[in-house]
Amino acid sequence: MSDNLEDLKNNHQDFSKGSLDSNEEKNPYVLFGRWFDEAIASGELEVNACVISTVSVDLQPSARIVYLKEMVDNSFVFYTNYSSQKGKEIAINPKASMLFFWPKNERQVRIEGEVVKLPEAISDAYFESRPLQSKLGAWASHQSDELVDSSEIHNRMAYYSDKFGDVVPRPAHWGGYALMPQCIEFWQGRPSRLHDRIVFTSFEGTWKIHRKNP
Ligand SMILES: Cc1cc2nc3c(=O)[nH]c(=O)nc-3n(C[C@H](O)[C@H](O)[C@H](O)COP(=O)(O)O)c2cc1C
Predict the structure, then answer these.
(1) How much distance in Å is there from the Cα of 46 to the middle of ligand 1?
(2) pTM of the model
(3) What is the pLDDT of residue 10?
C-alpha cells in the first residue's frame, strides 16, 4: 500500500485565500466569469476541465471530465460523442451536473440543470475548427464501446483518412451539449472548515440567492 494513502488522515488542509458574500454579485454568470478569469490568473492548469455527472436508467451516477468549450445563451457547452455512455444516459435522463475545482483559489463551482443538444450549426462550426486528427478521431472512436483490439481504432482512422482526405464532415453522432443551469453554487474555502457557499437558483426568470451551511 502507498505510504501517502496510509497517511491521508493526517492531511489537514486549511483554506484562507478568500471569502464570498451573498451581496457580492447578483448575476451568477458574471461571478462565474470572474472566478474563471481569476483561476487563469492564478496559474491554474486546465481551468476549463470540469466533471460532468449523469445518471443511468437504473439510477447509477457516473462522472467524467470534459472541457467546457463555450457559453451559448448562458448555457455551459461541452462536446462529446452522443452515443457514448454519457450521451445514452442524457438521452434518457437529461438532468446532469457540472463541477469545477480551482484549488489555487480554493474554489469549487457546482452547476445543476438539464442538458440539451446544441443546434447542429453550432456543433458544425466548432467541429470545423478542430485539428484534422481530432476530426478523424470523432469518426474512428466508438466512444465508450468495448475496444477488443487497439488496432481496430487505428484501422478506422486510416479508413476515414482515406475516405475524407482533408475535408472531414462532422459525424451525426458527435456534437455539443448545453447544460442549462437550474442552480449554481459557488464554494469558497474558509478557515476551520467554515466555508462560504452561495447558491443561485433559477426562479421565474430571476435568480434567488441563498447561503448554505458549509
Ligand atoms: C482533461 C480531460 C478532458 C476531457 N475532455 C473531454 C471532452 O471534452 N469530451 C469528451 O467526450 N471526453 C473528454 N474527456 C474524456 C472523458 O473523461 C471520458 O473518458 C469520455 O468522454 C468517455 O466518457 P463516458 O464513457 O462516460 O461517456 C476528457 C478527459 C480528460 C482527463
Answers:
(1) 13
(2) 0.96
(3) 87
DSSP letter, residue 170: P
Domain boundaries, the chain: 16-128+174-211
Pocket of ligand 1 (CB under 6 A): 46, 49, 62, 64-67, 78-80, 84-86, 143-144
Instruction: Return d(Cα 25, Cα 189) in angstroms, integer.
Output: 18
Residue 12 predicted with pLDDT over 90: no
Which pLDDT score is estimated for 13?
86
Angstrom distance (rounded) from CA 103 to CA 114? 26
> CATH topology for 16-128+174-211?
Pnp Oxidase; Chain A (2.30.110)
Active-site annotation holds for 193: yes
The residue annotated as part of the active site, out of 34, 107, 193, 197, is 193
Q: Could you report the per-residue pLDDT of 129-145, keeping only the tens digit for each?
A: 999 999 999 999 999 99
Residue type at 24 in one-letter notation: E
